[in-house]
């Protein structure tokens, strides 16, 4: 039995079943937005002109306006929007006369109308996504005010610099290759710098506003987003200063280094997804082992006196470091290409091991970029896995050199199991 069409034209068609499903979704979108607004009004002991019922009706109005416009004229959508805008304007005028300046609910009402239109048109996932963002923004009013109040002028300036680089400079870089081996591409270099500085900026903000008061495990995870090597250095030194915190410091180091694996997977997925098929399982083994050890140590740790272990924030936006990383990335591209041409497979592995002594991200991106072109997929996968383990060795050395005696014990146990997982990953990858 064929489904009955409510509308069936060359450009648009909708069945009765789809019509009622989309209508219910529209009503649900209005209900969720209205629920948040009504709850906010109760908490603030004030009044909003629109609550659950009003928002539901506004979204349905947009839905029906889009429906009728398909039958008659698209101008009906515009007329419905003007009617909603008039209602919002009157409400704002009345509120302003009472001294209540603020148009959040009014703007939300206009967006609710448009969500009804987009839902009828079939953009259901998009409408639901916008609804989620809208509700989150509306519900974070108090937290956003508190966060904005804590932002320093230097942090605001850092944010402006990042926006300028990401939106005004990066898009205009030439997307062409230059130099020996044709590996230097200004657009790709800019992309690496934007990603690196953006990751550091995001990690800085997380550390600033979430802090380490929720547990040292969370501190290590957040620190790992910025630099697991820095986390290793800071908490190794801390264990020497306060030996009683050695287990806690080991947790921070191991969890930060485990998050490094996530960074590797992210870079590979961005620059060459073809590598993921072979790398995903070995990296998952390392990650699960590392996070499992961290959680085990965390749950088994003895009750200890709380000692302040704040992670140093450093600069909000370290462009010098990002630029250095970009230059390092380009240099590694040349190094890997040269080693591949002169020494074959052996040269790639040697250059990967050497490059990983300073940073795992640069070699990961470089090898991912060359995989499938001047490098085979299997060699690139092995090089990345080798670089990951070599970089881990560097951090083991830091911990053993600067850490307390008890920290060394935990690090050797933790990283011993991680290396077993890494070697098993090599076996899985190659056999």
Automatic annotation (TrEMBL):
Signal peptide: none annotated. Keywords: Membrane, Transmembrane, Transmembrane helix. The keyword tRNA-binding does not apply. It comes from the Bacteria. It comes from Putridiphycobacter roseus. The chain crosses the membrane at residues 19-36, 48-69, 75-94, 127-144, 156-174, 189-207, 216-235, 250-271, 278-298, 322-340, 379-398, 410-429. Residues 194-403 form the DUF4010 domain. This is MgtC/SapB family protein. Residues 23-146 form the MgtC/SapB/SrpB/YhiD N-terminal domain. Pfam families: DUF4010 (PF13194), MgtC (PF02308).
């Amino acid at each position: 039995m064929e489904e009955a069409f409510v509308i069936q034209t060359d450009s648009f068609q909708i069945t009765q079943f789809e019509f009622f499903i989309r209508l219910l979704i529209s009503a649900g979108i209005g209900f969720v937005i209205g629920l948040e607004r009504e709850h906010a009004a109760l908490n603030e002991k004030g009044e909003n002109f629109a609550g659950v019922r009003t928002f539901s009706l506004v979204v349905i109005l947009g839905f029906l306006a889009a429906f009728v416009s398909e039958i008659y004229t698209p101008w009906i959508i515009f007329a419905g929007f003007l009617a909603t805008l008039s209602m919002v304007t009157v409400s704002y005028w009345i509120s302003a006369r009472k001294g209540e300046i603020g148009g959040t609910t009014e703007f939300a009402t206009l967006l609710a109308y448009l969500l009804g239109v987009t839902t009828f048109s079939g953009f259901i996932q998009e409408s639901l996504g916008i609804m989620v963002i809208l509700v989150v923004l509306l519900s974070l009013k108090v937290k956003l005010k508190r966060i904005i109040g804590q932002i320093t002028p230097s942090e605001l300036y850092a944010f402006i610099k990042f926006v300028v680089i990401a939106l005004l400079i990066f898009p205009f870089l030439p997307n062409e290759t230059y130099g020996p081996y044709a590996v230097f591409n200004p657009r790709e270099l800019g992309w690496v710098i934007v990603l690196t500085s953006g990751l550091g900026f995001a990690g800085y903000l997380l550390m600033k506003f979430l802090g380490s008061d929720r547990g040292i495990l969370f501190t290590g995870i957040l620190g790992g987003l910025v630099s697991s090597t820095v986390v290793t250095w800071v908490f190794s030194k801390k264990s020497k200063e306060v030996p009683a915190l050695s287990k806690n410091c080991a947790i921070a180091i191991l969890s930060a280094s485990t998050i490094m694996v996530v960074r590797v997977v992210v870079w590979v997925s961005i620059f060459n997804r073809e590598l993921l098929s072979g790398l995903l399982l070995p990296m998952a083994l390392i990650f699960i082992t590392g996070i499992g050890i961290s959680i085990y140590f965390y749950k088994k740790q003895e009750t200890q006196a709380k000692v302040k272990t704040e992670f140093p924030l450093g600069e909000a936006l370290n462009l010098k470091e990002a630029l250095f990383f970009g230059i390092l990335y380009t240099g590694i591209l040349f190094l890997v290409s040269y080693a591949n041409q002169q020494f074959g497979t052996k040269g790639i592995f040697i250059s990967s091991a050497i490059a990983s002594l300073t940073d795992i991200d640069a070699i990961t991106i470089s090898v991912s970029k060359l995989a499938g072109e001047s490098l085979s997929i299997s060699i690139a996968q092995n090089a990345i896995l080798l670089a990951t383990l070599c970089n881990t060795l560097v951090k083991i050395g830091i911990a053993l050199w600067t850490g307390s005696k008890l920290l060394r014990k935990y690090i050797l146990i933790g990283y011993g199991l991680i290396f077993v997982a890494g070697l098993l990953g090599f076996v899985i990858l190659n056999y």
